[in-house]
Specification:
alpha/beta, 8-stranded mixed beta sheet, two-stranded antiparallel ribbon
Length: 822
């Protein structure tokens, strides 16, 4: 009975873990009204490296008293030109100005502003801009949403007019420049938007002069600010490629000496351009528009250094790291893909010649030293991604040649990790390197996530704040290697236990991984958690043996669907401002705007598929597995037959990686990151299994399936018995070694003494051979009760009464393993 309901119980357990992880949310207090007036002052192109006490004394004093952060100026176009930045500010969502623009460039800076009455202004191009964003762009932004949310707004300068214009083009109050006394103008409306100019170019002296001029205008604004007002200063956009992080400062009641952050970033010291509009409305105590902003209101958090110079060094350093990461990351993954291709080509002849053959007709065996070197190279390649993650603990981006520094640090870490794996106890066993590499990878990524994912932010294998897609939790690459490492670790542990315990082990290890991935406090990736739930369910149901049948796949799909539905129900019960990505998507489906999200996701999948080097990793790994490892001479099918838990872990990894990539708009990136770990380890384990394919295993009398074997009568010790082969030196049941071995002649019966302790937990040496392990046999249907006595032997005796068990001679020209695999 328990065996029949086991899949349902495992599904319920995985679902409970997944929903618990996803439903828990960090405590958030509702934004409170803190000001009667808000002044948004924008300086296009202003970066933290432009801020100092000499050139920008006003901004320096403002940053000293207020809260600061790094501003990501993502918009609907890249780069975010000044007019795009101003439009995104007013829309509260990713927007862009229409019209022709050069590749990777900006449209002409001029914006037509008409002043028919001397009070307000009109933007004649606003109607076409609204249509462009609503019909041509996938974000569905509505320019002018911010000004539509207040009764009256003021704009000073052409850029501010773009941000303050309502959807039909009207600006309530407009001035082309600050008047001699701006008090009356800034106090006439609750919201004022001021264009303080632009800081552009690469010459430090020129940038300092432009920053000085903008700072002088800021001094006039601060002198004329209304009472009980909030002033936000932002480097509103880029001015050229490449993108950079920019200045964000908030000064007002409740914003004293802290870090700026928001729920959209989830990390202290980071803010998005789309967060400024909801921040202004929250400070004024105004409701958000019906079509929610993409951003979230900013808040001020503590923990900022008392010395402003030390505080400013953090966002300035983040800007340098993000800029260096953009250059190094593409080269790293391109090089990794190339190395994987070369290593795959080098492994092919080793796989063809790894199996020992009988007689002089077989191919010459490969030197053991060559195989050992190939194994170490496979370990090194598998450890490259976690080593690159650890390399970001060293500030390599501060050097004159950051790329070379990163390569050197990563190489040292790869060498250290490979050495550690080489000398770990159990390295000589078939699954020793796989377990060590998987465990080390899971440990590195898991510890980083548990400590705030600091190595992934602006890291080479992490995410960049310049992209504006993610600021906290697991990256796409991190998700791929973590789910692969966790499932392989679970498979390695499960294989060492009785087959009845294997599903429970897979659920336990996989369930913990789901919590790490999905918790908002940790990985903050609900889509990845749902995908991993499906992978864990697949791994659990086939870990004890058997194929991935339709019914088992249905259980896995039901588990993932249950987790998604459970989290969706919990998320939809929250207020609109606190919902996560899944809740917001379902709400958009309800109001008819979900098509934008679907279109955006499909576009991102296609662009990632054709542009990412990780696509090459996924394709190369798939080709190596399909056309080499899964062939009769490749060894992977034999590995799967001997170690069903490892087969289950790899199958679960593929399911989770594919679902996670497609649902998260990352195409094959998650699968490519997982393949960087799984494929080298699969090749290494296949080499070791093939190296022992012609060994023989003598049966242990009295051993039943309930003792841990995957098939009755399997297991035993081979002629070598050093534990290096898949069965501890053992090969197929009853196979006679094709080459001369010590012992009695082949024609004479041999006797095997029964072991002193036939019962006990199975070890690596107790696993069945490929011939005796039937992958299609379901553990639930074919296993026997451990309380039943062992049946009699061929001679009519029982293991308890027989002192020896005769093994009839069998002379073969090819080992039974070779026959089964050919």
């Amino acid at each position: 009975m328990l065996r029949r309901i086991a899949p349902a119980l495992l599904t319920v357990l995985v679902v409970a873990l997944g929903v618990t992880a996803l439903a828990a949310r960090p405590p958030r207090s509702a934004p409170q009204r803190t000001a009667d007036f808000v002044v948004l002052a924008g300086i296009a192109g202003l970066r933290w490296e432009d801020v100092d006490p000499q050139s920008t004394p006003t901004l320096w004093r403002m940053a000293q008293d207020g809260s600061i952060g790094s501003l990501s100026v993502r918009s609907a176009h890249r780069p975010t030109c000044p007019v795009d930045g101003w439009l995104t500010l007013g829309a509260g969502s990713f927007a862009a100005w229409n019209g022709s623009r050069p590749p990777d460039g900006c449209p002409p800076a001029g914006v037509a502003v008409d002043q028919p009455d001397g009070i307000g202004a009109n933007l004649p191009d606003q109607e076409s801009v609204v249509q462009y964003n609503q019909q041509r762009l996938s974000w569905g932004a509505m320019p002018g949403s911010l000004s539509e949310s207040v009764r009256c707004s003021v704009a000073v300068g052409p850029g501010a007019a773009v941000a303050a214009a309502r959807p039909f083009g009207r600006v309530d109050r407009y001035a082309s420049a600050l008047p001699a006394d701006p008090r009356v103008l800034l106090g006439s409306c609750v919201l004022s938007i001021v264009d303080l100019g632009t800081v552009e170019g690469t010459d430090p002296a020129s940038r300092a002069g432009q920053a000085r001029a903008a700072d002088a205008q800021l001094a006039r604004v601060l002198a004329a600010r209304p009472p009980r007002s909030l002033v936000l200063v932002a480097g509103i956009s880029d001015t050229a490629q490449p993108s950079r992080l920019h200045v964000a400062v908030a000064d007002g009641p409740g914003w004293e000496r802290g870090w700026l952050t928001s729920a959209s970033t989830g990390r202290d010291g980071y803010l998005q351009l789309v967060d400024l509009a909801p921040t202004a409305l929250a400070a004024l105590g105004r409701p958000m528009p019906e079509r929610l902003f993409l951003g979230r209101p900013a808040v001020s958090t503590g923990g900022r250094p008392a010395d402003l110079a030390d505080a400013i060094s953090a966002p300035a350093n983040a800007d340098r790291e993000a800029a260096a990461q953009r250059t190094v990351s593409g080269r790293f993954f391109t090089l990794l893909a190339g190395v994987q291709v070369l290593l795959a080509l080098a492994v092919l002849p080793l796989l063809r010649r790894a199996r020992p053959h009988a007689g002089p007709a077989g191919p010459t065996a490969v030197s053991g030293r060559v195989v050992a070197v190939a194994e170490l190279l496979l370990v090194a390649v598998a450890l490259t991604v976690p080593a690159a993650l650890l390399a970001d603990a060293v500030p390599w981006w501060r050097g004159d040649h950051p790329g070379w520094l990163f390569a050197g640090i990563t190489g040292l870490l790869v060498a250290a990790g490979t050495t550690a794996v080489r000398f770990v106890p159990g390295y000589a066993s078939t699954l020793g390197p796989l377990g060590a590499v998987a465990g080390l990878t899971t440990l590195v990524v898991g510890l980083d996530v548990l400590t705030g994912a600091r190595l992934q932010l602006n890291g080479v294998v992490g995410y960049s704040a310049l992209q504006g897609g993610r600021y906290a939790g697991l990256s796409t690459v991190g998700l791929g290697v973590f789910l692969a490492g966790a499932l392989l670790t679970g498979g390695w542990f499960a294989q060492r236990l009785h087959r009845g315990w294997r599903p429970a082990v897979m659920v336990t290890v996989g369930g913990l991984a789901v919590v790490v991935v999905g918790s908002p406090f940790l990985g903050a990736d609900p889509v990845g958690a749902i995908a991993l739930t499906a992978g864990v369910s697949v791994a659990a149901v086939i870990s004890a043996g058997g194929w991935l049948t339709v019914s088992r796949l249905a259980w896995a799909a039901m588990a993932a669907l249950a987790v998604g539905i459970g989290f969706a129900v919990v998320d939809l019960r929250r207020s609109a401002a606190e919902r996560g990505s899944l809740g917001r998507f379902l709400s958009a489906l309800g109001d008819g705007t979900g098509g934008f999200t679907v279109h955006r996701s499909s576009t991102e999948n296609f662009e990632t598929l054709v542009n990412s080097p990780l696509t090459v990793l996924a394709l190369v790994g798939g080709l190596l597995v399909w056309f080499a490892l899964l062939q009769p001479w490749g060894g992977l099918m034999r590995l799967f037959g001997i170690y069903p838990a490892v087969r289950a872990a790899m199958a679960g990894t593929v399911v989770a990686a594919v679902l996670g990539g497609v649902l998260d708009g990352a195409a094959l990136d998650v699968l490519g990151a997982a393949a960087a770990l799984v494929v080298p380890m699969a090749a290494l384990a296949s080499l070791r299994v093939l190296g022992h394919a012609a060994d023989r295993t003598r049966p242990l009398p009295g051993r039943s399936r309930a003792d841990g074997a995957d098939d009755p009568g399997s297991g035993g010790v081979g002629p070598v018995g050093d534990g290096d082969g898949p069965t501890g030196g053992g090969g197929p049941l009853g196979a006679v070694h094709p080459r001369p071995i010590s012992g009695a002649p082949a024609g004479a019966p041999q006797a095997v003494a029964p072991p002193a302790t036939p019962d006990g937990p199975p070890t690596d040496a107790d696993e069945p051979s490929a011939d005796s392990a039937d992958p299609s046999a379901d553990a639930d249907d074919s296993s026997v009760d451990s309380d039943e006595p062992a049946g009699p032997t061929r001679g009519g005796t029982t293991p308890e009464t027989a002192s020896t068990v005769p093994v009839p001679p069998r002379q073969v020209n090819r080992s039974s393993t070779e026959v089964a695999a050919s």
